[in-house]
């Protein structure tokens, strides 16, 4: 059940690997959380903390970015956008308790208030999503101020909606008869298919940004100047120190892999740990698809398996290029 509605039932949709995705789905993003940053120093403060260029982010744009520690290891990957009188900072709920205090650590020296939002987070997905956004909210651009919140275009078939509880309940009630209701696993599937990285509690402080392809999804600015972890990120680009990348893999499994699980690779007649599961989705027919961090110099025909299982997994093509990784 949804954490904010006692009436509507948001549950995992039974999809096989061959099924088309719903033309319209309303997704309860209960596994995600929103941070808000408000105050006259919000832009300058965040600019010195994260990999993306906050200063150039216009009101009708959103961007992916990362918040790293001093060694360049990621605490979180987020989507940033203008929200009400400040910024909205969308990230996984599982790392909120550890990452939020780190983001706030130096805020006492700036005029900025950083808090977790009580907004309800919904996703609207499918080929009819744009049509519904136009009908319900109107406006222009990829980020739109709406009653009591914001609508953010994520890709051609996805919108994020961050609104107050009353507006979320009204919208869900209105769309319940025309949209499939889903839990956040449908959003996971879209992210995996589009190779959009994330950091959960099990993978916090494990990867540098380029090891999850952030340079390929415009989540790193190499022109903005200093921020926490910037030296490591710059060395990864200009000195080629990064030896990992994120890939899409697919295979059979009885249970959905979890973030942090090991993916083994074949080495001769033996198996060794090859990478770490970042996110995964299991279809109803025992097929699964996942994002995994792997060495970036493996042969294209490398074979993989989940630790403790026999079924073979294989890499799928990425929807973007990693050629600029070095």
Automatic annotation (TrEMBL):
Residues 242-308 form the tRNA-modifying protein YgfZ-like beta-barrel domain. Its main location: cytoplasm. Folate binds at residues 32, 187. It is found in: Cytoplasm. GO terms for cellular component: cytoplasm. One of its GO terms (molecular function) is folic acid binding. Pfam families: YgfZ_barrel. Folate-binding protein involved in regulating the level of ATP-DnaA and in the modification of some tRNAs. It is probably a key factor in regulatory networks that act via tRNA modification, such as initiation of chromosomal replication. Belongs to the tRNA-modifying YgfZ family. This is tRNA-modifying protein YgfZ.
């Amino acid at each position: 059940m949804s954490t904010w509605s006692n009436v509507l039932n948001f549950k995992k949709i039974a999809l096989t690997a061959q099924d088309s995705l719903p033309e319209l789905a309303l997704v309860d993003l209960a596994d995600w959380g929103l941070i808000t940053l408000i105050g006259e120093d919000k832009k300058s403060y965040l600019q010195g903390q994260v990999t993306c260029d906050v200063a150039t982010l216009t009101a009708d744009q959103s961007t992916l970015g990362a918040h790293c520690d001093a060694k360049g290891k990621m605490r979180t990957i987020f989507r940033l956008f203008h929200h009400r009188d400040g910024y909205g900072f969308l990230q996984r709920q599982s790392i909120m308790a550890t990452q939020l205090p780190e983001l706030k650590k130096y805020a006492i020296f700036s005029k900025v208030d950083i808090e977790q939002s009580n907004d309800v987070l919904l996703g609207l997905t499918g080929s009819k999503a744009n049509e519904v956004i136009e009908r319900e909210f109107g406006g222009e651009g990829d980020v739109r101020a709406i009653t009591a919140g914001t609508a953010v275009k994520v890709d051609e078939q996805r919108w994020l909606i961050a609104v107050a509880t009353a507006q979320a309940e009204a919208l869900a009630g209105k769309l319940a008869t025309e949209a499939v209701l889903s839990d956040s696993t449908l959003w996971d599937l879209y992210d995996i298919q589009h190779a959009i990285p994330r950091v959960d509690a099990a993978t916090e402080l494990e990867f540098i940004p380029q090891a999850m392809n952030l340079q390929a999804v415009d989540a790193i600015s190499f022109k903005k100047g200093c921020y926490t972890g910037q030296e490591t990120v710059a060395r990864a680009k200009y000195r080629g120190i990064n030896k990992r990348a994120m890939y899409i893999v697919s295979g059979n499994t009885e249970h959905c892999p979890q973030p942090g699980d090991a993916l083994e690779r074949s080495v001769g007649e033996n198996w060794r740990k090859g990478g770490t599961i970042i996110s995964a989705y299991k279809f109803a027919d025992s097929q699964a698809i996942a994002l995994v961090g792997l060495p970036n110099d493996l042969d294209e025909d490398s074979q993989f398996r989940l630790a403790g299982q026999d079924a073979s997994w294989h890499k799928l093509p990425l929807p973007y290029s990693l050629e600029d990784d070095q």
